Structures are given as structure tokens and as C-alpha cells.
Amino acid sequence: MPTFTSTPALTVQKLTALTFPEDVTPDTYGMPVTALTPSSGGGARPPLTPLACQDVIDIIGGRTAPVGVSQLINWKDDVFPGGTTLAAYPSAGAESVFRALEADLPLCRSLSGVDYGGNKFTNRIVVVPAPTVGDRAVRFQEVADVGDGRLRYTEHIVVRTGATIVTFTMVDVDRQTPFPPHLVAQQVQRLAAAQHAPQAQAGG
């Protein structure tokens, strides 16, 4: 996985300003934004197997980016929250990281690891057609058996737009609920516009 020493044009402050505002839709409430740190989402748990799956999870979680933010999205009509992760890279960094994601995803058909409670798990990974947004996009479902014959579906839509990679996540049980397409398009458009602004090009 590539590592980066230079600074992206989009800072934490700029990425935060590009997340969804509280009033983006009447279907949401409480949408806090958190800056990612190098250890965000990490911890002392063993790495996922196969290694390709660990790479996939690191990329969609923004852990490969020097700068990133995550936003929790609470839906009024759903007990399960959704979320986004906005990650910014220097120069052509996002392109190389997204190529790594596209190479690793076919090698990650099942994902095994240990959860925060110390329990071992194995989830299926199902790649599904991606929306036509941004420069490149992939979409996949992580399917987990939660007992009593019930399945939890976690959908990830991952989009590269210029020097950024944004991940949209939705969770539901016993049904597959997509992230609202109009919000996906809106977020991607906001990232693209910010990178074409004069201040972004000048690195300010």
C-alpha cells in the first residue's frame, strides 16, 4: 500500500466543510463529523484475513490517507445509521490507492477476523454494480450472519474523485438498503467542485 509524505490540497477543515450539512435532507438528524487520525478504526485486534481484505477495509476507512474525516448519518426511519468517509491524497495518490482497491477486491471474497468483543467472525463479500459517478467507483456488500437465520448487510460505495476517495456506507438487517443515490451524487459533486476551485489548485 502506498505511503505519503506530502500534504493534500484539501485539509481537514476543507473536508469537514464539504460533508453533508444537517439540513441536507428531512430524512436525517444528528450528523457529527470526526477527523481521522493514523490510528482511526485500528486498535490491538489481529489483522483481517486474507490480507487483501485488510487493505480494502483500510482504504474505505480512510486509514491509507494523510487527511480524512468521517460523518455519521442518523436516518429518521431506520435504527441503523449510515456514514461517509472523505479521504484526501496528495498529487496522484488517490489514483494509486484506488487501483490497489480494485486489485484487492476480487481477492476478498470472504473476510475473517476478530470483533471488538474478541469473537471470531467470517463475513461474505459480494461485489455488485457500482453507480456511474466520479472518476472511478466500486460497490460491494459485506454480509454477516447475526444469528437466528438473520443476515446483516453492510453496503459500501467507494468513489474516487480527483485526489479524493469517498466511501458511503449503509447497514441493514435482512434487507439491502442502498445509500440514497441523490446524496451520493451530491457529495461527489461537492468534492469535484472544491478541487476545481482556484484556492484548491493553489493549495490554499
Automatic annotation (TrEMBL):
Top-level division of the source organism's lineage: Bacteria
Protein known as: Uncharacterized protein
